[in-house]
């Protein structure tokens, strides 16, 4: 039936648009994993289903394509045809990204965005190193904050998340060292 074929075609297109295994995301995942970070993918219970979630770091990482998320960079060009359609669509995506980040921040999550263009060519190594540095920095800063708070009330959001396989071992006083090369190998 024509309808079925149309539907199949549409769902194929949607699947490719929302593919979770896009190359930029794979680059980030492989790097983090090799450096000892453990994470969960496309967390369904956090706003915006972040691509990579590091619970131990209370950090959600979005790996964004420059076109779909309207990055202000050389890689982004509005198509010459149906320009208004694309502008509206991409504006909507941008607004949603901002909203998702605000909601995550309100829940006490750090939010990092890695752009596709930052993973291309020579920029890639620097981007990945910065990401690793930022994660370790977040970890240490969060521990500092915790010790200086009058009462150590856990944030609601963390408790609402089910136990994750990547968060191995129980932490009591937040005294784990930040991940390093070779750490947390299974
Ligand atoms: Zn870009």
3D structure, described in words:
The radius of gyration is 19 Å and the shape is globular. The longest helix is centred in the C-terminal third of the chain and has 26 residues, at 123-148. It has helices at 2-17, 23-34, 83-106, 123-148, 156-160; strands at residues 40-41, 52-54, 59-64, 110-115. It starts with a helix and ends in a 26-residue tail after the last helix. It has a single domain (2-154), classed as VSR Endonuclease (Endonuclease, Chain A). Strands 1-2-3-4 form a 4-stranded mixed sheet, with helices on both faces. It has 5 helices and 4 strands, in the order H-H-E-E-E-H-E-H-H. Mean pLDDT is 80; it is low at 156-177 and 179-186. It is α+β, with helices and mostly antiparallel strands and 186 residues long.
Number of helices: 5
Q: Main sheet? A: 4 strands, mixed
Spatial order of the strands forming the largest sheet: 1-2-3-4
Q: How far apart, in Å, are the first and last alpha carbons? A: 50 Å
By CATH's scheme, which homologous superfamily applies?
Answer: VSR Endonuclease
Beta content: 5-15%
Quickly name the level 1 CATH class. Alpha Beta
Question: What secondary-structure arrangement, pairings included, does this model have?
Answer:
Elements: H1 2-17, H2 23-34, E1 40-41, E2 52-54, E3 59-64, H3 83-106, E4 110-115, H4 123-148, H5 156-160
Parallel strand pairs: 3-4
Antiparallel strand pairs: 1-2, 2-3
The structure holds zinc ion.
Zinc ion is lined by residues 66, 71, 73, 75, 115-117.
Short description:
With 186 residues, this protein is of the alpha+beta class. The chain has helices at residues 2-17, 23-34, 83-106, 123-148, 156-160; strands at 40-41, 52-54, 59-64, 110-115.
